[in-house]
């Protein structure tokens, strides 16, 4: 542990892990709101390389090698008023720490329903919220047996996981060989096989993704919707390519989507916190893809730019037990973040050119290329993005035109394994 000057502000412990908002973003959101102490375990993926940098910026409570009760006692010495995480993979530890320390947060059983896809589907079905047909399998043969029962098409994904990693859509028997790409001999993971939900192109419009997400806060069990976030069309097989606000849905469709998301959140027993619920737009109406008990990936920055709402600060306030009612300010523009993703291959990035040309495009505010030649690329890691394009335009037609044009300006070459 390392000490920095104390203040009269409350202290929020942030359990840091893979997929979390960056330390600088968290500290920026907490300014004048609370003091931050990062709770770090070097056994958690992504933590060890960043730990020295985190120590230079903030207080750190390291819990490496400790069991949960030892970790709680070490954290207790920091006198936290709240504990929160922005990482899907740290929800369980965070809930246990909150319970031991007597702080607000998700209950461990709620975390199980939020992170175990089979348990979540069962809870949604029991509450009458959604009844997507789902089976489990622990081998390729088991997946094929599940497909026989469910029929094509299906979605295959790990029972526990995030970021759509190792997620595959099977449309017919000729694609069964693709299972080897995500399942290998000795793989001990359990996979979920779900009946694929067909999309309705007319709901959001044929140029856009046939799904949306709902960002919400929960205060003492009351779900308060902040916004419905539009999505760009998925890249093969099921990889996100970006998001934008406002969505292209009608006001009535947005209300229906928000109502479904709220019902799903309540069915899982969420009492407090920020939620991110993905909803598929089908010919039969909106259907739940999954509920996440955390700030949605990339949603915090988009919502801040579009409507002036800081989800990271909001999550800290909720963890402190405060009554939060986010009030998005009107934007008058379409604000977006587009992802540069590799094609469906496993190999190496040879070159990436065109960023300067994209930066010069009207409506583009920032181009962030995060990949470099020689970097491995693997479609099975959907969270692997080569770059991001952020900006704002006057309407959705302008956005579509901009995306079409920027994809022509980017030039990427790969070496395939």
Can you offer a commentary on this structure?
The termini are far apart. This protein folds into 4 domains: 11-103, Rossmann fold (3-Layer(aba) Sandwich), CATH 3.40.50.20; 133-195, Dna Ligase, domain 1; 197-331, ATP-grasp fold, B domain (D-amino Acid Aminotransferase, Chain A, domain 1); 335-417, Aldehyde oxidase/xanthine dehydrogenase, a/b hammerhead (Aldehyde Oxidoreductase, domain 3, Alpha-Beta Complex). α1 links the parallel β1 and β2 (35-40). α5 crosses α6 (117-126). It is globular, with a radius of gyration of 21 Å. With 417 residues, it is α+β, with helices and mostly antiparallel strands. 43% of the residues are buried. The protein has an 8-stranded antiparallel β-sheet, with helices on both faces. The protein has helices spanning 23-30, 51-57, 68-76, 91-101, 108-115, 117-126, 140-150, 201-204, 251-267, 299-307, 311-319, 355-359, 396-409; strands spanning 11-15, 35-40, 59-62, 82-85, 134-137, 154-158, 168-170, 191-195, 211-219, 222-231, 242-245, 273-282, 285-292, 334-340, 346-353, 364-369, 376-378, 387-393, 411-416. It is built from 13 helices and 19 strands. The longest helix has 17 residues, at 251-267.
